[in-house]
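TASK: fixed-backbone design
INPUT:
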């Protein structure tokens, strides 16, 4: 096995301890303002902003640097309409099946329902796919590793970048998402993970009153 090519670490920027504390706190306060939004304005967003946010997501760490993700940016009203109609059929089934009773009880404080108008109203939907395997140059199937972990990190960075840019988002999943592959032209080697709904909030947007866990609840120091 040949030795990998190594290059100097050039992107790291050191800060004083006081500056680190300030940067960490400022970033925390900014991210604590982030909310998932379900009422969107139809105002178009600058596509350059979306592109930069995607490049941020694409810089995420991944297993063996395989970068097993693909982001499909959807602005076509016809495709958004189809996504909404198909998703709502699945949602109506989900909300009316008895075996989902516990899950629905957990969702109740958020005020969600089977109707998903934001899938049409929001100017941008980003369908996010996880690439399970690829074909190499010789047509041999190569498996990707730690796929869901890697794509999950990239999604987190994308949500963060969108908030930092001044937009709002909603992570949306539907019980059965396989219809997305044919709808947006992705292969069988990719699994749809979620739709990220992106745009400006409706001027009358409201969000549920929720509480985040404290540091003590989410962490342990040893």
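OUTPUT:
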């Amino acid at each position: 096995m040949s030795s990998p090519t190594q290059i100097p670490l050039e992107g790291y920027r050191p800060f004083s301890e006081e500056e680190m504390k300030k940067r960490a706190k400022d970033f925390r306060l900014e991210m604590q303002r982030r909310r998932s939004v379900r009422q969107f304005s139809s105002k178009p967003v600058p596509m350059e902003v979306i592109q930069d946010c995607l490049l941020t997501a694409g810089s995420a760490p991944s297993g063996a640097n395989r970068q097993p993700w693909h982001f499909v940016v959807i602005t076509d009203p016809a495709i958004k309409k189809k996504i909404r109609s198909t998703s709502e059929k699945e949602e109506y089934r989900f909300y009316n099946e008895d075996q989902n009773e516990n899950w629905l009880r957990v969702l109740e404080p958020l005020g969600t329902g089977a109707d998903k108008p934001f899938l049409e109203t929001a100017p941008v939907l980003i369908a996010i796919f996880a690439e399970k395997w690829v074909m190499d140059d010789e047509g041999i199937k190569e498996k990707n590793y730690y796929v869901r972990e890697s794509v999950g990190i990239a999604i987190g960075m994308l949500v963060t970048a969108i908030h930092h840019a001044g937009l709002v988002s909603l992570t949306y999943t539907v019980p059965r998402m396989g219809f997305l592959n044919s709808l947006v032209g992705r292969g069988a080697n990719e699994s749809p993970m979620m739709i990220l709904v992106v745009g400006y909030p409706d001027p009358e947007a409201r969000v549920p009153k929720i509480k985040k866990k404290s540091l003590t609840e989410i962490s342990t120091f040893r």
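COMMENT: The mean pLDDT is 95.
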